[in-house]
Design a protein that fits this description.
Largest sheet: 7 strands, mixed
CATH superfamily: Vaccinia Virus protein VP39
Distance between the termini: 38 Å
CATH class: Alpha Beta
Helix content: 25-40%
Order of helices and strands: HHEHEHEEHEEEHEE
Number of strands: 9
Number of domains: 1
Strand order of the largest sheet: 3-2-1-4-5-9-8
CATH architecture: 3-Layer(aba) Sandwich
Shape: globular
Strand content: 25-35%
Number of helices: 6
Length: 187
């Protein structure tokens, strides 16, 4: 059983995220993704981003954690949620955008590459990806979770194998410049 599968850990995570303001990311997304677009959120967690983005987009949430999905289904009964792995994304549905906020950081490089390829396949023509990442040059494990930090140029080059990068936003979550939000469009 993983960290995000236990109710106590999910409560701890939610408490840690209390006060998080994703408005700058949402603004970058809104200036690139047309209102009304269909959006799959990979790793929706407790639904913090869904609460803000559902006014502009047709959202389907997903997470690997049944605990998070249960809480989201209770909080947003009008929305669809699926249990999806961020690498294989085993759904037949197509979307205008695949979005994640600090989710793909848990993937090793070969898994991230497989995820990007799968995202490209499941997007509608000229669809978008919009993801946030930690910047740096290390990998670490905490509380049984794997974290991969990326050098900006190398990350953009990897994304560029599958998509045209159209917008980036560098910001600080814990330290100035520790995070990058990338919006890219399917070729």
């Amino acid at each position: 059983m993983g960290y995000y599968d236990e109710a106590g850990s999910v409560d701890q995570y939610m408490q840690m995220c209390e006060g998080y303001d994703g408005a700058p990311l949402y603004n970058v997304l809104r200036r690139n993704l047309p209102k009304g677009s269909s959006l799959l959120e990979l790793g929706c967690g407790p639904g913090f981003d869904i609460a803000e983005l559902q006014a502009d987009y047709q959202i389907m949430g997903s997470d690997l954690s049944l605990e998070f999905l249960s809480r989201c289904r209770e909080r947003f009964p009008e929305l669809a949620f699926e249990q999806l792995d961020a690498v294989t994304i085993a759904t037949q549905k197509q979307f205008d955008c695949v979005y994640s906020n600090k989710v793909l950081q848990h993937l090793r490089m070969h898994e991230l590459e497989a995820s990007l390829l799968r995202q490209q396949q499941m997007l509608n023509e000229q669809g978008y990806v919009a993801h946030s990442f930690w910047l740096g040059d290390k990998e670490e494990e905490m509380m049984g979770l794997y974290f991969l930090y990326h050098e900006k140029a190398a990350l953009l080059a990897m994304i560029g194998r599958y998509f045209d990068v159209i917008d980036t936003y560098e910001y600080g979550e814990f330290e100035n410049g520790d995070s990058l939000f990338v919006v890219a469009q399917k070729r």
